[in-house]
Give the backbone structure.
Amino acid sequence: MTWTTRIRTLYQAFFLLLFVWLLAHLAAGDPRAFPFTVFHHADPLSATGTALASGTIPGALVWAAALIALTLVLGRVFCGWVCPLGTLQQLASFLFSGRTRRESLSVNRYRRWYAVKYYILAALLVGALAGTLQTGLLDPLSLAARGLASGLWPALPGGRPAPGGWLAALLLVAIVVVSRWIPRLFCRAFCPLGALLGVFARFAVFRIHRGSEACTSCTLCAFACQGADEPLGNHRVGECMVCLNCLPACPEQAMSYSALPPLPEPPQQPDLSRRTLVGTVLASLAIAPLLRATGGGRTAARARLLRPPGALAETDFLERCVKCSLCQQACPTGAIQSAIAEAGVEGFWTPVVVPRRGWCEFACTRCGEVCPTAAITRLTPARKTGYDGKPAVRIGTAFVDRGRCLPWAMQTPCIVCEEMCPTDPKAIWFEEAVETARDGTARKLQRPRVDAARCVGCGICENKCPVGEEAAIRVTSVGETRDPLNRLLAGSVQT
Amino acid sequence: MSRRVEPTITRREALLRLSSTVAAAAAVGAGVVAFHDRRTVTAAPAAIPDWRTPPGGQGPAAAARGADPAANVRRAIAAIGGIGRFVRPGESVLIKPNVGWDRIPEQAADTDPTVVAELVRLCRGAGARRVVVADISCNDPRRCFASSGILAAAGAAGAEVLDARRLRLVPAGLSGLAEGLEVVEELLRADRVINVPVVKHHSLSRVTIGMKNWFGVLGQGRNRLHQDIDMAVAELGAIFRPTLTVVDATRVLTANGPVGGSLADVRAVGAVLAGTDPVLADAWGAALLGHRPDALGFIARAEQRGLGRSDLALITELGTA
């Protein structure tokens, strides 16, 4: 291992460990204020997508501009040196490859279809402009975070199950494992973040340079090329991940990575067909309205679509949520899950509160603290609980199912829901009633009722309800603070 | 990386590979046969020990008042024979406060941290080998133990503070309404158990103090017990016989219990009772909330069962320090 490789490997290991370490601490509920969002804040794909979709630029995402600036100087160092998903793929390709030199050479040649990522990027960004933000589906940082959160943490001791998590886990495993046959296939062909950085990397000051006098065209430089950018011939700067494997590979020391004057002729364009690109742009303009029309729309409130506390109104929320899953990991009770069908096609993998999995802890504001794009507003405990004198933040309203509730249906005392209710005074109260039991005896019962003006929809009543699988008190989204149209009570909101 | 091996293999190698495949498959199969559908071996449900110590010459309970909760704890325990009567050198002690809720001490939904910490210190001073502070919270356990101040205070006093994430539940063969519920394993390991409830309003049992505090050592399904709360609490009092009950009335929660919230519902009483009679302890707490003890169903039932007495005159009132 030469010193360039060694330094790069150290960087990669550091960033991979940092990424996993931060996520693990976040998921473990570490109360310290680590910079959990640091990777996502530096993600230009999220930043661009959110900016295009919402027409605003989330402040913290200006770090993404710094990454683009870095790319303009050094090329796609993020891909080769930082990205945890890239590192995982490179590791898999290194560990499991049994390629001969001839196979290595052929597998690390550029393929025209590697340009697919540019179409994906165009589709995602145009789709965002047209109002649907889907970058998170393929963003490597979101995918890596989600794969770990849904696929690995639940399997660890004490891990909470993440229903539907197998999908993200399988995707992550597939991306990593396929590197055994084609190194960094995801980066080369599909990664929209890599494509975005590639657009800027073409203008990079520092580039791989081949001294044509010394070169004997032996092709050794291309054996371990991570980006399949063909340093031996017409070097594709936009594809180069600056792994620097070509430098020590050259027996003639003809390769160098140095500051170069701008390329004489216009730098090589991504291998795009104009027709396909126009088609992609037009098709993706249609994506948003189609998804909305066929996915059920997003203006009509959905009963079981409970968003985390502080989430913006659905339209604004979907224009900002980058599906990074950080809120899901931050939730101490496991209430926040990834939507599969709850939020329509468009809202696939967006966070949704599932009270039977966990409840929204009354004074907890963790999800908003880690949201990188402010799709979930940062709340203070005083603001969320209403202790500051203004109305509390509600995510829905609880409803008693009188057909299942023990006091209502079975003449059996219970009121666990009332006991758990965190508001002050409690949103759940009870009326006392005396009923005649089957054997003729009189039974005094406390039948729970919900005071909708007090209920914040936290769902601890539904979570703790002793009536098995389907609770006898359930929270639906009506009354949520974020949607003024989804109101239950007339008049001014109290609490 | 070497050149690709020959495309054909020898008969010897083919046989070797085939037989190793068969051996591997047989090993997997044998493993499946040996381990499939093996029920977890469930140990016979452990009996709940009786943690009481032989009676001394002192009264069944003493209550101390004063501004310093720690001093109240010391005085009350001293008046019923001192900690040495209850904890002997080398014993392991489990302290069971109420850490049910993500509330701060001023909201009086959880046991006061200074009371818990002082008990830890006393047990340590008496030579306890190990002091565990444990509870299965209703809210997120991390937040409960942090907000209540008990994690910091009891930890600093030398206790092992265990929340629900670190407590193992085991079948215990409970009878009555609690049948089928699991209990915290640490409880079965402890030589001595000290119940440290806080005095609170509860809309089903009217008050929640000591015997109701045993809900916190039970596992999933404990909310079934609300179906006949008075009976259930009395039964829990018969199942769990603590060495000592220390009732924290530094602040009491008078309404909106057991979660509370508003400081308007909290009354500063500044008292602590220590006693060996759990029924008397609950009766004292109930009286603080303005109830006649014998009017409360679970106290009446517990007294009928002979678990203790509710006659407040039996309490040694130490007064204000």
